[in-house]
């Protein structure tokens, strides 16, 4: 439960593997390490891997929007990969597809930045 | 009579953020006797999470108060959920229910709480007055198991 961070210098990509429930209670502890990694690396791309996310509410939408703003300020982009069908529905409801590329499967995602996901 | 109550529970708990998960799991466990489909259960949990988070983030901002959550199973696979606080209340309910509107833009609140509760239930009602707390009630009818299975087969 939480977040694991990886950095690929070749593609200047930060990968954040999120797991467990994302709600108002947990989102703060996810936000801080992701932002610290982004500010340390100044990547071109942030990939949020949602494979391990068991639950998400609007706090997860807030988390993605906040990271989008940060990446946008730095001239980078954000991608969300492997949401569960339930999470995908929530992302759609929150209009996340307008600011963030959403990739449905790990097979598609594995091409991103040449990183293994 | 359609509104006959088949089962009922009431929980009272303090507005601590760690209770968001507890509230979701409690509702999930209580309605499990109806054998809801995975997507329905997930939507109910999300709606409850939004309702309880509103109490914690907004109603009892900078303080801790009591949240009362009542869940009823009604005849016809219907679930009634009431989430009540005695916190600060909402002065403009219409604004609060507007998607993307939030009173806490600095805290990465998406302003989607009521919009999500509305989309994931069949009926949402909000009663509130400034200083007098807020009561949110939601009604959701579950598909029968047979219909849920048919929907699932269609998708595959």
Sum up the structure in keywords:
heterodimer, A: 117 residues, Transcription Regulator spoIIAA, five-stranded mixed beta sheet, B: 156 residues, alpha+beta, Heat Shock Protein 90, five-stranded antiparallel beta sheet, 5 helices
Q: End-to-end distance of chain A, in Å?
A: 17 Å
The CATH superfamily of chain A is identified as STAS domain
CATH level 3 topology of chain B: Heat Shock Protein 90
How does the overall form of chain A come out from the CA principal axes?
globular
Within CATH, the superfamily of chain B carries the name Histidine kinase-like ATPase, C-terminal domain
CATH architecture label name of chain B: 2-Layer Sandwich
Main sheet of chain B: which strands, in order across? Answer: 1-2-3-5-4
Count of discrete domains of chain B = 1
Q: Helix-strand pattern of chain A, N to C?
A: EEHEHEHEH
Biggest β-sheet description of chain B = 5 strands, antiparallel
Strand content of chain A: 25-35%
CATH architecture identity of chain A: 2-Layer Sandwich
Would you tell me which CATH topology of chain A applies?
Transcription Regulator spoIIAA
The percent range for helix content of chain A is: 40-55%
General description of the model:
The complex is a heterodimer of chains A (117) and B (156). With 117 residues, chain A is α/β, with parallel strands linked by helices. Chain A has four helices and five strands; from the N terminus they run ββαβαβαβα. In chain A, strands 1-2-3-4-5 form a five-stranded mixed β-sheet. Chain B has 156 residues and is of the alpha+beta class. Chain B has one domain (5-149): Histidine kinase-like ATPase, C-terminal domain (Heat Shock Protein 90). Chain B is globular, with a radius of gyration of 16 Å. Chain B starts with a strand and ends with a helix. At the A-B interface, α1, α2 and α3 of A face α1, α2 and α4 of B.
């Amino acid at each position: 439960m939480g977040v694991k961070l990886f950095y690929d210098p070749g593609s200047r990509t930060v990968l954040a593997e999120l797991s467990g429930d994302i709600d108002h209670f947990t989102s703060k502890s996810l936000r801080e390490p992701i932002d610290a990694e982004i500010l340390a690396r100044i990547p071109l791309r942030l990939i949020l891997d949602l494979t391990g996310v068991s639950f998400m509410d609007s706090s997860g939408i807030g988390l993605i929007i906040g990271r989008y703003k940060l990446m946008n300020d730095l001239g980078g982009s954000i991608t969300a990969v492997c949401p569960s069908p339930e999470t995908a529905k929530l992302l759609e409801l929150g209009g996340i597809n307008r600011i963030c590329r959403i990739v449905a499967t790990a097979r598609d995602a594995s091409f991103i930045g040449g990183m293994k996901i | 009579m359609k509104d006959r109550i088949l089962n009922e529970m009431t929980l009272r708990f303090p507005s601590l953020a760690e209770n968001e998960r507890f509230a979701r799991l409690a509702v999930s466990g209580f309605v499990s006797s109806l054998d809801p489909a995975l997507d329905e259960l997930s939507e109910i949990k999300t709606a409850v999470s939004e309702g309880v988070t509103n109490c914690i983030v907004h109603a009892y901002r900078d303080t801790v108060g009591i949240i009362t959550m009542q869940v009823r199973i009604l005849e016809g696979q219907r679930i009634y959920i009431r989430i009540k606080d005695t916190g600060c209340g909402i002065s403009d309910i219409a604004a609060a229910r507007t998607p993307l509107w939030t009173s806490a833009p600095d805290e990465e609140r998406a302003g989607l709480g009521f919009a999500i509760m509305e989309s994931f239930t069949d009926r949402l009602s909000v009663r509130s007055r400034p200083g007098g707390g807020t009561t949110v009630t939601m009604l959701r009818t579950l598909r029968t198991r047979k219909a849920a299975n048919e929907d699932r087969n269609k998708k595959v």
